[in-house]
Amino acid sequence: MAVDLSVTDNPLFIPEQALFEMAARVNKKRGFLFVSKVLGKHIPVHPLKPLLASGLLALEYAERKTGQELKEKNEILNGLLSETESELQAAYQTLQQHPVTLDEAPLVIGFAETATALGHAVYDCIEQASFVHTTREQIRNTEPSITFVEEHSHATDQLCYAEPDMMNNSCPILLVDDEITTGKTALHMIRDIQSKFPRKEYAVLSLLDWRTEEHKKAYAEAERELGVTISTVALLSGRISFKGVPLSESSCNYSPKPQGTAINRTDIDISDFFTSVPYQPETSANVHSYVKETGRFGVKPSERKAVHEACRQAALYIEQYRKGKRTLVLGTGELMYLPMKIASKLGGSVSYHSTTRSPIHPVAKQGYAVQNGYSFMNPEDEAVRHFVYNLPAGAYDEVFFCLEKNVSDEALQPIFDIFKEKEVPHIHIVTLSGKA
Known about the structure:
Residues 19-238 form the Orotate phosphoribosyltransferase-like domain. By secondary structure, this protein is an alpha/beta fold. The protein is built from eleven helices and 20 strands. The longest helix has 19 residues, at 48-66.
């Protein structure tokens, strides 16, 4: 396989290598993946980097929307590109002190699973905005407000359980994704929204935009057909061409070896800091508790500060369990933003990323985005396979593995086996919701 790419627009002059690396994807429909270095999904990052990248997207959108230059953007950009703790912290403080004000308060929608945190952090930067993220969770006796298909994904059905008053209005909608290749996913969603909750204005915000001229014409045609405007904002845009045959399966063994370091386990319940909401998934006979602050069911402007405060208190509580100087905080699937925000409040050397549904072909080769990978059944839904990538041996003194729901010890055993092989002596199982 070979992917040729050329950059056509880079408004902030961000070096390509600062934004992504490439990997082979195990997917017949699309054989490659741009693995983001600022997202906190497949590659471990400083937890402030995804928050700063989201801020730059929000500021770039605001500048184009209002026509006013935002001077703080350069400091935030410098922070994103820095590896210095003080510069990262100063940039994020600046971002928090200068929220964007728009004439009309938008609804920000983040795409599951990869852009749930990206969308939430964009919402954080816009005063009076509301937020919800799409989900692949199907909930019994609950009608989704939006349904659509993500064609190149391994799990194509996307749902949105936004509260009715969030959708039943005419406010602008900002769709946030880590990358758009054809843009069809966003168009599917816009069409579904427009058929139920018509409005005049949409925007699609992404870290990367690889649409061809043909794909851009499809956006212009949708604008004319639906009588709406659809603007796009990306940190980097370009063209890609693919040659070769996509992988239908990986030849790699994603299972951990049985030997390794003995692990000390700690269970940490931080549900007192968050709001548990009981729902019954379609795949389970049991009622589970979700966490309202994730944004799966929506968060409003008035709730933003409370979410930040909950994460701050949770971080203070978690701090007492720290066992070493090199810490990994690992989110699970759609649960990205809250663990990332908590990680950003912890002191010392902290890395953050998340498990994923995406099967990627790992290769231990310099310059390749995915050096190693492990698969396991999702402890929260054992019908769904998850993966975790780029776990260096001996790199961490401890890992905080964050779960939205309570799970069994048996379901966690594959996680213990992975970190046993990676020579992580301490694993903390962090649960965000209470028992249903």
